[in-house]
Amino acid sequence: VLRVSGTLSRHCRKRSFTYIITKPYKEFYEALRGEIKRSGIAYSGRMKVSRVPAGAKLLYTHYSAPLEKIISITAKKSNNLFARHLLLTLGAKIYGAPANLDKGRRAVRQILNRYRLLDTPRCHIDNGCGLSRVSKITARSMARVLDHAYKSYGKRWMQTLSIAGVDGTIKKRFRYTAVKNRAWLKTGTLNNAKNIAGYVKSKSGKLYTVVILANGRRARWQGASLENGIIKWLIGYRGSGVGGGVDPMRAALEQKDKKIWEYSEPISTARKYYVQVGSFDAIPKGNLLTELLNMGLTYRIIRSDNHFKVVVGPYSEHFQADNALWKLKDEFPGAYVTQF
User: Fold this and answer.
1) Is domain 153-242 given the CATH code 3.40.710.10 in the classification?
2) What pTM was estimated for this model as a whole?
């Protein structure tokens, strides 16, 4: 039983809160039992938490949305629940199940230290979602993480952050300013703390990494004013920065795909999954291939008889190809998964 008490002002708008109030496996069990009952199926079993026995029959596998989509929701909506579970999932992936906070912290530190991004021991990772008074990071470490992310994934990574005046936590903050559509940022707010980090593109086309961490009793309001002033100033700044037209990931993919390869019968017996985007009489150029690059996808052009097929992949698992298809379906409604 969940009891909520207290008072609210008549002027308060509707707000939604997400809390974990029970164990996930109990939630699943009760939901499954309810559906079985509603379907009129006789059921007298009970829940048992233990190792999966040998010979158990797999009934169903659920695949989430692609990780890129989950990260985007996490960043744009500042979803602490998602962020915490990403930390737990990463810990279980690297150190094995079951997931726990210690494994998650160790996993994040291992990855960041591999690229020397953390100012150890001045940085401390607590629960993975920012709702902590003991989590610590330096502006220099955060800037290193942002620079590394941009060099690795370019615009694909930037688009997962809130876009100034357009969406996420800064949809209204910069709506009627020159910053609109020129900044990709993640905010962080607690009592006595007001932080913002990301990228700002000036009118001259230069891209700047921005990290502003404001702490203190007046941070909530004066910190926000300071951040807004610095970001607006950068829009008109003409100093050194990264050329806005440079996207390292796209450049690497374009270099890789300059040579068109022709497909014949596969030598390996291991069949791979692909998403076929289209089939053409001539080698496709221009907008189609550029669109695939902008989406962060690796494509290949396969010559088959007198046609040229554009495929995305390869993927070793069917669900990976399904994730790519999910990303492509709006721009290329005729795309489908194939295997060879």
Assistant:
1) yes
2) 0.64
